[in-house]
Task: structure prediction
Amino acid sequence: MNRIGPPRMKPWAFPAAGLLVLVACAEQPSGADGTAPAAQRQCGVADDRPVALPGGTFPMGQMDVYPGEEGPVRTTTVGAFWIDPYEVTNRQFAQFVEATGHVTLAEKPVDPALFAVPEDQIPPDMLLPGSAVFVAPESPSSRYADWWQYLPGANWMKPYGPEGPDFEPEEPVVHLAYADMEAYARWRGGRLPTEAEWEYAARAGQDNYTDQPTEANSWQGVFPTFNDESDGYRDIAPVGCYRPNAFGLYDMIGNVWEMTSDFYRPGHDPDDTDNPRGPGENAAYDPLNPDFPSRVTKGGSYLCAPNYCRRYRPAARIGREPALGASNVGFRLVYDEAPAGSPDSPAG
Ligand SMILES: [Ca+2]
Ligand SMILES: [Ca+2]
Result:
């Protein structure tokens, strides 16, 4: 019916739908590197206008961490565009909901027809409105089902579930489906970036790296049980708490994963180098979630740790099932024409 495609969920497969995606990212423990604790971080964005980026050519991809996902490196060209300097916030999304009455997918009951079993075999909680929330297990584990829970009542307004606190206006919005992000983008006059645009913006002319960055909200310690929080935040941080990259963009790496418009396949097509838009939907394939046409998410999240998910890098990528929100996935917009209040020309 649409680009997202029907989520052919099975109850036992449900946690796999996007949950691994959330997992991608983090390295370097302790505050000995000078990382300031939360109370000392100055959060916020001085200039919230979209940033005009000239087009450019850059080496997209990386071969020394997860080459099967991120390689081969290819010389890639993208045209000029504008990009939000920070992740879409709850404050911004609330303005959209106020103006349009939009109801997100996580706020709606789950259609039993989406499961591949008779309705009486579906756990009742799985049919309630909700989303996937990270809940740290008490014991060490390497099974994502031990730390991802489908929580009825979790949605963008209740990011940690119905018993948790309300959303913080200056934190990035989470628990959205791809269709919710697209609806917001249409309202704002923007769109989701392609993976190439996003990676070009995140690289900002810098070389690839492998170590966990200090100026990004990730996970210091042993995921999923011990986080020393030396970067200042255990969970999601408000936008703009970490230094921006050379293009003036905040939190491209870490905080929340960011959705792109590309469908996911492992690796890059070495011949698709001129404003690439990824494979077609029929060619989408996500080994972690093979029943769904996943989209590419980028940049890692506050859950990325060196022992589990070293995806706190511009080249990092992982597939995400578009119809299931999660507590560590957000987005930001790009624009093909100068948004109101932005610089007139990406060349400027
Ligand atoms: Ca952190
Ligand atoms: Ca981010």
